[in-house]
Amino acid sequence: MWPVSLLLWIQALLMGSGPMNLPEVPSCRALPGDTTWPTTGIWDAFNASVDGRLIKTTPIGSPCHDPHYDFEACEYVKKNWHEGDMHISHPSSVIDAVFLNKSCDPFAPRHSPCYVGSYVQYAVNVSEPIHVIKTVKFAKEYNIRFVVKNTGHDYMGRSTGTAAISVWMHHLKRMEWFDNYPSPDYNGAALKVQAGVQGAEVNAEATKHGRLIVAGECPTVGFAGGYIQGGGHSVLSSVLGMAADHTLEFEVITTTGEFVTASPTQNQDLYWALSGGGGGTYGIVWSVVVKAHPDMPITKAVIYFSSEGLSRDVYWEAITAYQRVIPAILNTGAFLDATYDAAKFRMAPLIAPNVSSPRIHSILSPWLDTLDALGIQYSFSLTRHANYVETVADYDNFDLNGYQIGGRLLPRSLFETEKGFSEFMGAARDIVEGGAYVWDIGLRPSLEAGKYPNNAVHPEWRSAERMYNPILFFDDHDTLEQISADQKRISQFDEPLKKLSAGGGAYVNEADPFARDWKNAFYGKNYDRLLAIKDKWDPDQMMYAPIAVGGDRWEETEDGRLCPAP
């Protein structure tokens, strides 16, 4: 959460007062206005050295502010603010507005100043490894904060940073297919993708060859970046494990300027860490090679009902009946995506690879019978699809920009006793009745499903039955104080979930980014080993995020300056 002093400073910027004059500390990263900040001539020379690919940040909301106000352009920004594509195609914008701290907010008054604020100051539109190498070297030389950005689809704030220079990997789109990828432990179909390739592009390429790849539900997510480096859950996780379980090789640019290969036989420690140990931490991933699997038919089911006209107890009886059938559904190797609040419930979708429609209908029947007995009107669809891509083509994700998220991993053992089930239902009802919208994912990415990989995926994933995420939406006009207050509520919602979880584990890509127990929550027993690997491969600590391994060695001051922690 943001300290009040930071909130007040940001608001002062938006109201027109200048930045605070804090004493320069040589060990802290530089800010514009510091005597050490590069001059225009130095920036121009650096731009020439990276083939003219340096982009000075113009915040995406700038058309909504004087002196560059443009009514039509501003309306376009506002209309598309919650659409991922607009931010993904922008060199410095990020999808999660929480981490923009209202910098150049398109919904702020036209006369309020437009500050770069929490956006990066510059981005390098990378096309060759040398562009990354030179950018890191430049950031080191001038003590500038360094960031890696692809799509900006990151709910943990790692794709941006005040006064940073970033490498923008988004246009690295090359893919290479292997019918038989040779390696000591695997010889089969595989796909090599560069860092800018997104999930939908991975899926489309695999489908051409009659195969599928373990990728994310959201088609816009960058595949090789934070997704796979954070472990990567998928609609296929109950049958094939996590995305990181299928990595064969990474090409990596280190912060010391090397271009290296990381695999089970080369630089094994780096390979282990990149396969689930968190993104933006150990090195800059240039490409990844992953296993491809035979495509398969898939059954999909969707159910929706509302609480309108129902008592609270009846509504929760319907949700409880759903929770009762989940273990039987997951026993088939299926995946469940349910969202609900006090007003509506959606199971959208259930995805069951290689499972027949009659079998899924049979498992769902006790729940549907309960809905009928309760007199609840619901919509229900059950469809059979020939392949994976056809199944996920219309996957329905809610707004990408405008909510705060928490969440914990809940173990299968919790749901195996009536006591555990009752405690879970009590916590779930309290969270929803407390005003949260819940994202309730059912999956079992066990070691068996992933073929017993040796990687840094959080151990709690292997016994997980749920990823349970409380969510609070915020209005575009909410103040920073309101947003901060909601973040405190998210943390409070997480407390009962933490008690229900086996070891307090959470998904490093989708959870409370301000969790106080983040080391254990996101890395568990792997943390110390990951820290040693980071220190080996990033000795100058160029790669930083508050919740990344080694993140506690730094802190941000009131003006956004990154400094060594005391």
CA-based shape:
globular
Low-confidence stretches: 1-26
User: Share of helix among residues?
Assistant: 25-40%
Oligomer: single chain
Please outline the major beta sheet.
8 strands, antiparallel
Classify the secondary structure makeup into a structural class: alpha+beta
Strand content is 15-25%
The value of Rg in angstroms is: 24 Å
**Distance from first to last alpha carbon:** 19 Å
Mean pLDDT: 93
Instruction: Output the number of helix runs.
Output: 16
β-strand number: 21
Task: Explain this structure.
This protein is an alpha+beta fold. The chain has helices at about 5-15, 40-50, 70-80, 85-90, 130-140, 200-210, 225-230, 235-240, 270-275, 310-330, 355-375, 390, 420-435, 480-500, 520-525, 525-535, and strands at about 55, 120-125, 145-150, 165-170, 175-180, 185-195, 210, 245-255, 260, 285-290, 295, 300-305, 335-340, 345-355, 380-385, 405, 410, 435-440, 465-475, 555, 560-565. It is built from 16 helices and 21 strands. Strands 12, 13, 14, 15, 16, 17, 18 and 19 form an 8-stranded antiparallel beta sheet that branches. Helix 10 packs antiparallel against helix 11 and helix 13 (about 420-435) runs antiparallel to helix 14 (about 480-500). The two termini are about 20 Å apart. The relative contact order is 0.12. Belongs to the oxygen-dependent FAD-linked oxidoreductase family. One of its GO terms (molecular function) is oxidoreductase activity.
